[in-house]
Amino acid sequence: MLQGMEKLYDHNFIARQVRRLGEEIDRDFAGRDLLLVGVLKGAFIFFADLVRAVSVPMQVDFVRLASYGLHTQSSGLVEFRKDMELSVAGRHLLIVDDILDSGYTLEALCEHLGGRGPASLKTCVLLDKREGRQTAFEADYVGISLERGFVVGYGLDFQESCRNLADIYLCDPERSI
Ligand code: IMP
Ligand code: MG
């Protein structure tokens, strides 16, 4: 099952980056009405760890988006499958996603939620894939930057598999599974 996969970031390294992000968020959002929005499904493990690394008062909500289908390249078409349940107006929103790649997903989501009148809107990603960018989008908080490659584990999938792996692996879709 791990054929064609190379371990890239182990869970201890990931945990250190998550703790650092939590400290940055604590510092920047102290005294603000913080609402963290997790992007399902890929961010579910990162989100669960990140909220516990943040100690300022906050609430959580989720959206579900899909842009990839079963391919490893973004289609550029972002499909909204589940909306938020809490109201956004006047709140300090921090959108949390697993990976920033082309930028289509977060760009579309920020436009969508930005239209609902939040007090502020920021984004946090675990991984920033620099070379994949097709838009001018940049995240405000970045856990780890990498140049290229398709990665799985720690919530990230290849064709819905591998989300349960504790570490993050570089995956060669030609050879895996
Ligand atoms: P973007 O719209 O191209 O920025 O794609 C972002 C979304 O594509 C992320 O939220 C991930 O769900 C998915 N994605 C991008 N790269 C990878 C990867 O290397 N592994 C798993 N999912 C990925
Ligand atoms: Mg995603």
Poorly predicted ranges (pLDDT <50, ≥5 residues)?
Answer: none
**Overall morphology:** globular
What ligand species are in this complex? inosinic acid, magnesium ion
Fraction in helix = 10-25%
How does CATH name the architecture? 3-Layer(aba) Sandwich
Looking at the structure, the CATH topology is Rossmann fold
**What summary fits the major beta sheet?**
6 strands, mixed
Task: Characterise this structure.
By secondary structure, the chain is α/β, with parallel strands linked by helices. The protein has one domain: 3-Layer(aba) Sandwich (Rossmann fold), CATH 3.40.50. It is about 25% helix and about 30% strand. The protein contains 3 helices and 9 strands. The protein has helices spanning about 10-30, 45-55, 105-115, and strands at about 5-10, 35-40, 60-65, 80, 90-100, 120-130, 140-145, 150, 170. The strands form 2 sheets. A 6-stranded mixed β-sheet has the order 4-3-2-5-6-7, with helices on both faces. A 3-stranded antiparallel β-sheet has the order 1-9-8. Helix 2 links the parallel strand 2 and strand 3 (about 60-65). Helix 1 (about 10-30) packs across helix 2. It is globular and about 50 Å long. The model has no long low-confidence stretch (mean pLDDT about 90). The site of inosinic acid has 19 residues, from strand 5, helix 3 and strand 8.
How is the topology of this model organized?
Elements: E1 5-9, H1 11-29, E2 34-40, H2 44-53, E3 58-66, E4 79-82, E5 92-100, H3 104-114, E6 120-129, E7 141-146, E8 150-152, E9 168-171
Parallel strand pairs: 2-3, 2-5, 5-6, 6-7
Antiparallel strand pairs: 1-9, 3-4, 8-9
The site of inosinic acid has 19 residues, from strand 5, helix 3 and strand 8.
